[in-house]
C-alpha cells in the first residue's frame, strides 16, 4: 500500500527501530526480575514494549505482584541499563541508508520516543545521529504515552504537516497503534524482539528498513 499523496515528513521511533537498545532492555528486564526470583518472559516483554518506562514497569509490577514502588524500579532499571549498555549500543540495520534517503528527498525528520529526554539524547548521541533530526519528542512532551496518539499528533504539528502526510516508522505494536490513531502513514518495522507483534492499521509491515516498499513510499 502506497500513500495517496506525497509524504512531507518522516518520524522515527527510537528503541528497536533506530538503535538496538531493546537488546539491552531484554537483559535489564531479566536481571531486574532475577533479583526478585521472577522470570522475564516473552509475553511480559511484549506487554511492556513501546510504553514510557513508568507505565512499562507498572505492567511488570502487576504481572508479578511485586511490592516495589514504580519510582524505585525506574531508578534501578535506569542504572542497570547504563551499566549494561556500555559498548553495546549500535544502529539497527539500514538506519544510515534510510536517513540518507530521507535527506536526499529534503524531507524533515524527527524522533518520537517513549523514553525520557536525557535518555533519548544520550542514546542518539552515543550512536552518532542526534544532530540529524529536526526535533526529538519524548515522554516529557506529552501527557499520555503510546499507545495514545498524542506524541504523533505533536510530531505532525512540529513538522507543520497534516498527520496523514507524515510517514511513521515503528517497531512495536504499541507504537504503531499510536501512529495509526494519529492518522499517520504508519509502517511497522519489527525488530527481532517484536517479530511476533501484530500491526493492525499499518500500511504494511516491513522486514527491515531495507524493505524496498519504504523507498517506494518516499518516492511517491
UniProtKB/TrEMBL annotation:
<dbReference type="InterPro" id="IPR023214">
    <property type="entry name" value="HAD_sf"/>
</dbReference>
<dbReference type="InterPro" id="IPR006439">
    <property type="entry name" value="HAD-SF_hydro_IA"/>
</dbReference>
<dbReference type="InterPro" id="IPR023198">
    <property type="entry name" value="PGP-like_dom2"/>
</dbReference>
<dbReference type="InterPro" id="IPR036412">
    <property type="entry name" value="HAD-like_sf"/>
</dbReference>
<dbReference type="GO" id="GO:0016787">
    <property type="term" value="F:hydrolase activity"/>
</dbReference>
<dbReference type="Pfam" id="PF00702">
    <property type="entry name" value="Hydrolase"/>
</dbReference>
<keyword id="KW-0378">Hydrolase</keyword>
<protein>
    <submittedName>
        <fullName>Phosphorylated carbohydrates phosphatase</fullName>
        <ecNumber>3.1.3.-</ecNumber>
    </submittedName>
</protein>
